[in-house]
Amino acid sequence: MGKNVITFDQLTDKIIADFSWRRKELTVLKSKIPNTKNPLQTAMIRATMPLLYAHWEGFVKISLSYYLEYVSNKGLKHDELKNQFVALSLQKKLGTLQENSIESKTQIIDFIFDKASKQSNIPTKNVINTKSNLKYHVLEEILFIMDLKDVYFESQKDLVDDLVDERNHIAHGEHKLVDYDTFIEFHDDIIALMEYLKTKIENSAVLESYKKPAPNTASSQITG
């Protein structure tokens, strides 16, 4: 992917471009499916459902990888970042430290405090792992890493899981049919979810949500 997502405009241009071609292709396919039940309708729905899932998984992976690259290229210090990004930056070193004694746990704490004011080095490769089976619990883990979890995503759990299930039924050769109205719901809801993720990333970049909130100095002052 390269270290080329540095500015907000670069981030949004890439995410919008990725979303747009996926939406266009899915919309074209949807328009070609007959709205009356016949063998062609059945075949096209069965052919399009796996592609709908593929576009959803692909957009999650690509858009969040761009966002991670954007945050990484900020070069912020650890004490300026949310804990998730600090954990990503330090995970390689932390993984070599054992936690089976107070001494080793103390070493971990010392290490973290020592690195607090140092520049981060957030990895961007192989972090956004959809596991080729993007169930909601996998999506939830990815959103947590990116500090993007919210109640709307939680409300879409059934949609995300049902799409995976339908894709798997077809991929495994099962003769399980999705009717036209159900397919249209899947299509429209998944595109809406992709658009929500796009907007969520854009807003998080604008608001610098990846940064640790500044301490509230007013509330921390001692009053006599």
Task: Please explain how this structure is put together.
Residues 18-203 form the RiboL-PSP-HEPN domain. It holds the Pfam family HEPN_RiboL-PSP. It comes from Christiangramia fulva. Helix content is 66%, strand content 0%. It is mostly helical. The protein is built from nine helices and no strands. The chain has two domains: 8-75 and 127-211; 78-119, no CATH class.
At a glance:
Residues 217-224 have low confidence and may be disordered. The radius of gyration is 22 Å and the shape is elongated.
Distance between the termini: 56 Å
Number of E-type strands:
0
Please work out how many helical segments DSSP would assign.
9
How much strand content do the residues show?
under 5%
- Low-confidence segments, given as residue ranges, are 217-224
**N-to-C SSE string, H for helix and E for strand:** HHHHHHHHH
Helix content: 55-70%
What's the overall average pLDDT, rounded?
89
Q: Tell me the structural class.
A: mainly alpha
Tally of structural domains: 2
**Largest sheet report:** none
Taken from the alpha-carbon principal axes, the silhouette is elongated
In quaternary terms, these chains amount to single chain
**Overall radius of gyration:** 22 Å
